[in-house]
Amino acid sequence: MSSRMKGFAFFLLALCSCLSGTQGQGDHEDQKACCPSDTCSLMKELISIAEKLGAMGEKLGTMGDNLRLMETRLQTSENEVEELKRLTGGRPQVAFSATLWETGDAPGNTGPFTTPIPLQYKKVFSNTGSSYNPATGIFTATVKGMYYFRFSMMNNLNTPPNSVVCLTKNGQRLVSVWDTTGSDANDSGSNAVVIPLEVGDNVCVELQANRLVHDDIMNYNTFSGFLLFPM
């Protein structure tokens, strides 16, 4: 209980004692008019109320401290958001573009593998927002929004060709490029999508099982994407 409430309770106790003593000296009629026991009972109830009010005051004080702490944290977050807006012009910036082989890699095929695997586009031209990971070939959305993705493929230089790649979202195949028939072996193709992504969604280009793609210093196999607008 706060010092103010304690002082108020002490005052009520003292008043109770004084009233009891004064009324004890009066005549019988005065005692009937105001019984000391009734007065003290009332004082005790007031003291109990004062104690409860004191406890509530302490709780309110704790709540006030917590509220001020939350206000401080909110202000810090708002400052960080404003700084991000200043740096990006108020819009999140996410964009990347990469090709399959590093400079200096010898021409050749990637694959085949017994299971589908994400292609690792190791030579990164741009990666604003750092959402694309060249070590895994996977793009992970850090902003909820509508995205554009495009990828290209060149088939293996064998006859017949044996190339199939698919763009996947969270492991689900969306669109594909393939070349598995024909007498020539130097074709390429591309595909693209516009899709919504939640934060944490993964997008990659997947080489299908037992398939191959070919690349060299001309960079035929690419993977690119960017945020159209947040949602």
From TrEMBL:
Transit peptide keyword on record: no
Domain of life from the UniProt record: Eukaryota
InterPro entries listed in its UniProt record: C1q_dom, Cerebellin_Synaptic_Org, Tumour_necrosis_fac-like_dom
Subcellular location: Secreted
Keyword Signal among record annotations: yes
Swiss-Prot/TrEMBL keywords: Secreted, Signal
Domain C1q: 89-231
Gene3D superfamilies given in the database record: 2.60.120.40
Pfam families, alphabetized: C1q
Signal peptide coordinates: 1-24
PROSITE patterns per record: C1Q (PS50871), PROKAR_LIPOPROTEIN (PS51257)
GO cellular component: extracellular region
Protein name: C1q domain-containing protein
Taxonomic placement: Eukaryota, Metazoa, Chordata, Craniata, Vertebrata
Originating gene: C1QC
